[in-house]
Known about the structure:
Elements: H1 4-19, H2 23-46, H3 50-55
Helix pairs in contact: 1-2
Amino acid sequence: xxxxxxxxxxxxxxxxxxxxxxxxxxxxxxxxxxxxxxxxxxxxxxxxxxxxxxxxxxxxxxxxx
Length: 65
């Protein structure tokens, strides 16, 4: 889940990118935004599943002979 700080940072980067006229600075800001999204994606991928947490452990069902 996004923290308030990371959401604010993403929005701030977007605002800076929208106004930036210098191509070099624009590229640096876009790279920083991309990095922030990748970090957020890693956090989501590593977070425990809410469904697994609610349902408990999953048991294997063996076929009946």
